Amino acid sequence: MAGNVVTPHFLRRRVVLTVASNLVRYLFGGAARNWARNVGSTGPALVSMTVLLIMSGLVGLTGFTLHNLEEIEAGQASLLHVYLRDDADGSDLFALETRLASDPRVDSVTYVSKEEALARAQRMPGLPQLADATESNPFPASLDVHVKTIDDMAAIDALVRYESVVDPAYPTSYDRGAYQRIQVVLFGIAVAGFAFIGMLGFVAVAVTMNSIKAAIHARRDEIAIMQLVGAPRWMVRGPFVVEGAITGAVAGAAAGLITFGLAMAAVASGSGSLMQFAPGITATVAALAAAIVLLAGTGLGSGSSLLSLRRHMES
Amino acid sequence: MRPIVEVRPIVEAAAVSRSYGSRLAVDDIHFALRPGELTFLVGPSGAGKTTLLRLINREVRPTAGEMWVAGIAAHLLKPSRIAELRRRVGVVFQDYKLLPRLTAIENVAFALQVADLRLSDEQARERSLDALEAVGLGDRGNAFPHQLSGGQQQRVAIARAVVAQPPVLIADEPTGNLDQDTAWEIMDLFEDIAAWGTAVLVATHNVEIVTRLNRRVLTLVQGRLVRDQPAGQTGRMAWLATS
Known about the structure:
The structure holds two protein chains of two kinds.
Chain A: H1 9-37, H2 39-77, E1 79-83, H3 90-102, E2 106-112, H4 114-123, H5 127-133, E3 142-147, H6 153-160, H7 178-218, H8 220-228, H9 233-277, H10 283-312
Helix pairs in contact in A: 1-9, 2-7, 2-9, 2-10, 4-5, 7-10, 9-10
Chain B: E1 11-20, E2 23-33, E3 38-42, H1 49-56, E4 64-69, E5 72-73, H2 82-86, E6 89-93, H3 104-115, H4 121-134, H5 150-162, E7 168-172, H6 180-195, E8 199-203, H7 207-213, E9 216-221, E10 224-229
Parallel strand pairs in B: 3-8, 3-9, 6-7, 7-8
Antiparallel strand pairs in B: 1-2, 1-4, 4-5, 9-10
């Protein structure tokens, strides 16, 4: 009698579970056992990777701070103070304000009276003494012009500089090249940071590759037997990649904790003043940096292992 | 009259050569192995026996010619697909190559499971025990390699090589480290394995075994196949098996 053989669902599920359990055992269980057994030989890789990741975390947080500072500076740089004569004619002033407000390159124009300028100066560090040094108000009234892009600052400055209502001695706050100088300095710091991280990264990758090479050498018989009995390539290589990833993850976890601790200690000790010099650094940002460091460590470890396998393991 | 049935070869070498630099290790070899055939590969040291076995297992690639193993073109095989071929070829070595920190049964099961992840521990253990019983070591499954004699370790290696039931078995000097009595026991196993349909190719220097078993003999000298002696005609060339 003819009939169809039906594979029951539970059998299929059992095969899937068996494959999953074997995979976990060979890839992760084996890698964890070997990692624990070879922890002595992976020590140098672990230390160098931890140092690299701590430095990366700190450089990353510094970069974040500099980025915030740059944004603050960019906001300041796009604000042009047009200082007005004390005897400026009201209708001329109104005409200039209207002309500026209708200029497509200008975002907004705000009139600041002498009294408001004095009040503002008294809130800024160092200026209250200057404000109190004389009985009369030394601060001029101004038009605060927010320019849409920094590149148009020079053109707006040229437009207003020789107006009759503008103070001929000190017409505007425009300082040609000030923002560009800040950008050059920040760019230099970023390049130096990346070069430093690149150099440390190279050292960490080289040391990790060597530790994996040593692990391959120590287990060459096992590898040869696996290859001879027909184990697929990923099964032979997988445990080494996982082993590298464990090294990276342990280094990343240690470095992440240290980075988080240092950032929180800095926030706690610097309190208010830190926020001026390192704006944007909060507990959330520090935790995020720690998580990125952990992920980077895991990626670095497994990536270095892969490179080492490609170079040192025969097919 | 019984019809003549042509059995297709399971291993076929056509004009196979392999060189290492300027040295030609195997030179223009032609031969075929059929299922159920036990064949000896003899010749002096450096004749190319090990290279020929490594060509079958695709540990090395031919520099010229074609090598077909169980329907797979080994000479064209990409590195990523070599594992497929090796699952069809069992291998036995002179130095056994057992993993020292695994027991006998774990060594056999390891080979079975790395080649087929669908096998559960129980299934792998059951089949490994069957293989160990077949080689006479059913009661030593929990022993570690260092607790076994050389002959017993070689039996474990044979169990490991055949547990996945490959159509081809190659053995490189499998009795090289064993005394004569143990060597005969190992050869009995190879005969049994061949009787169940596996093509078995044994590289050996053991003259007595080659002459007394009276099986097909391939003789290599300086990389060339100088003689392909059919079963039953091995007596006169035994001297070639000495190194």
